[in-house]
Write a structure and sequence with these properties.
mainly alpha, 4 domains, Regulatory protein RecX, Arc Repressor Mutant, subunit A, cytoplasm
Length: 229
């Protein structure tokens, strides 16, 4: 900072007139003033550089404090895992809302449980007591998928995604008239007229394949005439 910004500490002429100091005393006073001014000037220029000397250290401390606070918040917000009767009550609450496969129920409960092994043991117990049933779920899924116009291949895929064995409904799959199912879906989408144009026929085949029907049922469905009933 320039010296002219500092106020004059001593009026030399007034001192000489008032006290009659000799030149040596005044020179000493000027030296003191000069040293004082230099010290103030150095301090003023050096102070802003203190943080510049240790920026990384300062930022590291700030990051440590921020991470520590985040860890504390996470620990405070983390829910305690369910065990014992609380876990069992939660399992019943889940099953009252919808049917779950054994695999899906285990994964659902494990999100809130303290111990995964306890979840597996509990779900096996619920299955033995028929509170949870893959058989019941498979039958419900079959009925639901048939109402939506899905064929056997789509139904088996849906069961596989839930890790439910399709053999649980093998008899129901065999007893279903899939040709009739495919024909009703074809009529709803394209009408009763039998397609002779190759492009339209191919379009009907792709549509029924996407819905999960076998090729045998598809060909019978698109060739059936209205008077064939």
């Amino acid at each position: 900072m320039p010296e002219d910004k500092f106020p004059k500490l001593i009026d030399y002429a007034a001192l000489k007139q008032q006290f009659g100091e000799d030149e040596q005393s005044c020179s000493r006073t000027e030296q003191i003033y000069s040293e004082t001014t230099s010290a103030l000037h150095f301090a003023s220029n050096s102070a802003p550089n203190i943080n510049k000397q240790y920026p990384a250290h300062t930022e590291a401390i700030d990051d440590q404090e921020h991470n520590h606070n985040e860890d504390q918040d996470e620990q405070q917000n983390k829910r305690p895992g369910l065990t014992g009767s609380r876990l069992r009550s939660y399992a019943f609450a889940v099953l009252t809302r919808k049917e779950y496969s054994k695999n899906d129920l285990i994964e659902k409960l494990a999100l809130y449980a303290e111990n995964r092994d306890e979840v597996i043991e509990l779900v096996n117990e619920l299955a033995r007591e028929n509170y949870q049933s893959d058989q019941r779920l498979a039958e419900m899924l079959l009925a639901s998928q048939k109402r939506q116009g899905k064929g056997p291949n789509r139904i088996k895929m849906a069961l596989k995604n839930k890790k439910v064995d399709s053999s649980l409904i093998s008899e129901e799959l065999k007893e279903t008239d899939w040709t009739e199912q495919a024909y009703q879906l074809k009529v709803k989408k394209f009408g009763t007229e039998v397609a002779n144009e190759p492009k339209l026929k191919a379009k009907q085949i792709r549509f029924l394949q996407y819905r999960g029907f076998d090729m045998d049922a598809i060909m019978k469905a698109i060739r059936r005439k209205e008077q064939d009933f």
